[in-house]
Amino acid sequence: MSYNNIRTLTGTCERCHSTLQSVAELLILSCDARPIRTDTISSKSTFVQVSERIIASAKTIKTLMKSVINYVHMITTKSVEICEGLTELTSTVVTFMELCSHVSYICAISFKDCCQAIPGLVDRYSISLAGLEIKLSCNRLKKTRVDDLSPQLIIDLCSNISKHISVLTNICKSADEKVRDEGTRDQFKLCVKSVTCAAGCLIASIKTYKSHPSTRYHARFINFCDPVSTTAQALVTFATEEDFVGKEAVLSPEARDVQKSILAACMSIVSACIQLCRTVRELSYDLMTSHHKDKLRMCMDNVDRSSVQIHEILQRYHESEQSSHLNSTNSSDKGSNCDNNSTSAKGNNSPPRHLANLFREEFPEHGKSPESPPHEKFTQLLREQSPLASSNSRDLRQSEQNSGNVDGYSERGTRDSPEEMTIPGSPSSETSGHSAASR
Question: Between vectors from CA 304 to CA 22 and to CA 28, what angle results, nearest 5°?
C-alpha cells in the first residue's frame, strides 16, 4: 500500500474515532436524562417508532462492520473501500446513539416519582454537535497536505463549516429573543458575531487559494482555521451553561437502572466500533497477525451480543406496555359492574394508561403505598442482564424472596419466572378483585 493511501486511511480512522468518542461522551457516558431533538427524532416520535429504528440501525451496523472486516483482510488493495465503510459506519453509529439515548429517556420517565426534563433556551446536544463538526472540519483542513487538498474536498469542508455555523447562529438567535437580561443578550450577539467574522475570513482565504493555488495562500487559510474552531467552542461553552440548557429529568433509582441498562448495551456497540477503527489504523502500518484477527472477531462478537441484549430489553418493555393497556381495559370493564363504593370502581376514575404510567400496577385488595417501588419485577430482570448491574442485586433478590410478601406478590409469585407471575387483570387477579368488592 502506498504512503498516500496509508495517510488517507489513518486520517479516516482518527476522524471516525474522534467523532464516536465525542458523541458517546455527550449522550452515553454522561447519562444525561434529556430527550433528543434532531432532524430524524421529533417530539412526536413514539416508543415503537424509535425501537424499530434502533433494531434496524443495529442490523445495519453489523452489516457494515462485516463488510469493513472483510475488506481489512485485503487492506493493501481495498483502502478506499475501507475508508468509505468506516465513514458510513460512523454516521450510522452516531444515529444509533441518538436513538438509544432518546428511548432510554422515554423508558426512564415512565417510572413512578420521576419528573420529565425541563427544556431550556438552548438544546445542549444540538449546539454541542454543531461545535464538534466545526472543530473536526477545521482540523481536517489543517492536517490535509496540499497535494491531497482537492477542490471537491475544500468545497465539502467549507459547506460543512457554513452549515453548522448557521445552526449555532439560529440557536443563539432563538435564545437571545427569550433572554431578559440585557448583558446576557449582548453576550449571545457578540459570540455569534465573533464566529461569523472568523468564518468569513476563512472562507475568503479559501477562495483566494482556489483562484491562486500556492503555499502562501495555503498557509493563510490554515491560520484562520484555529480562530474559527476556538470561537465556536467558546460559544458552545457559554451557551451550554446551566442557566440556558434547562434541567434534566429527575429519576428514581429503578428508573436510573433501566436507563443505564440501555445505555450500557449501546456503549458496548460503540466501543466495538471504536476498537475497529483502532485496529484498522494499526493494520495500515503492520501486517495482519493473529492478534489483530482476535481483535476483529471480538468486535464482531461484542456487537452481536449487545444487539441481542438491547433488543430483548426493548421487547420486554413493549410487552409490558401492551399488558398494562390490557389490564387497564379489563379494570374498566370490571368496575362498571360493581358498586360505586367498591374498590374496583377506582379504576374508572383514574386517567387512562399511557407511556408515562407504564409498569404501574394497582392492587385494590391491599391498597397501593405511595412509597412502594413500581414494577419491581421488571427492574430486577433488567438488573440481571445489565452490564452495570450492582454486585448486591443478588443479595437484594434473596432478601425479597425470604420476606414472604413484597408489594402484593405472594411468596410463590416472587420465586416464579417472569412469565409465571400473576399480572393484574389476569383471571386470578380478577377473582381477588371480585372478592374484595364483595367484602
Answer: 25
